[in-house]
């Protein structure tokens, strides 16, 4: 089946514990120590954890309180997103030395299509190694990489030899690689779905491959078709260098629950300022303002308003957020507030015409 599909040379580069590694690089005293970026205070949530901290079970999205219980020696570091963005841009500049087909997923990871690359190097594996060497020598950070025929397999492979390693899945190895893979390692299969698959006797790619398209559709809805094809190595999504931002947001979790709207307005002022700053930095504006409210019982509520014109100014964002706050009575005390802008003017930009897929022979120098 693979022989009839477009085969590309795709690299997925994933920085190792990016935020934490930047902090350790900038402050050598933190090297070798368990650190967490963010997560300070009673309500703080961790953005990233160093590998020294991960050994204790500390991970991103975990509360700082739980993290300290797991690792009493944990050191909390305030995040510096401007610094992370600066380093991320330097890393992407390295990517562009090899190909213009770069699709960032976040500050710390990206897909690269090197089927036809600027270096004329036929080996995607050697290109990945060279990129990782340059990131280490020029910037001082380590990265991991996955190399294969499509984005899905490359992303799965990048996690295979982390940290500071890479994994190539050659075209003729794809089916065996996927069949032996634990279902939890499949990108797009979350914790809940993995548990559901376990209950149905699906533990590996080979087990998943035994299930018919009809069975997967009936049991996993719209995702069923995705699972059916990826386990067969079929994922035709191209690397899209012109990914268009659809929203931009900022939010704050408070150390103490807020019950007074007066205090909430003060917090909204800071959040609106941050959203406006990010909009101007990205040179975008939006029409739809959404207020996010998370209550003390962890229930979530959103309230939105669409304006007839694009905005990026803090004062307009703040006034609209205030209107949304007073739109109806709050259900409980509040632990988190957020503001997002969507319906951005980037959505009006014309997308670049898609490049045609390139069909090649199976063995061609990975």
Structure at a glance:
The chain contains 13 helices and twelve strands.
Protein architecture, described:
The protein folds into 3 domains: 2-15 and 84-230, Reverse transcriptase/Diguanylate cyclase domain (Alpha-Beta Plaits), CATH 3.30.70.270; 18-79, MutS, DNA mismatch repair protein, domain I (3-Layer(aba) Sandwich); 247-348, DNA polymerase, Y-family, little finger domain (Dna Ligase, domain 1, 2-Layer Sandwich), CATH 3.30.1490.100. The relative contact order is 0.12. It is α+β, with helices and mostly antiparallel strands. It has helices at residues 18-26, 51-54, 64-70, 81-96, 124-139, 151-158, 174-180, 191-199, 205-209, 213-220, 223-230, 261-282, 314-325, and strands at 10-15, 35-38, 46-49, 75-77, 102-106, 109-113, 143-148, 166-168, 247-258, 286-295, 300-311, 334-344. It contains 13 helices and 12 strands. The longest helix is centred in the C-terminal third of the chain and has 22 residues, at 261-282. A hairpin with a 2-residue loop joins β5 (102-106) and β6.
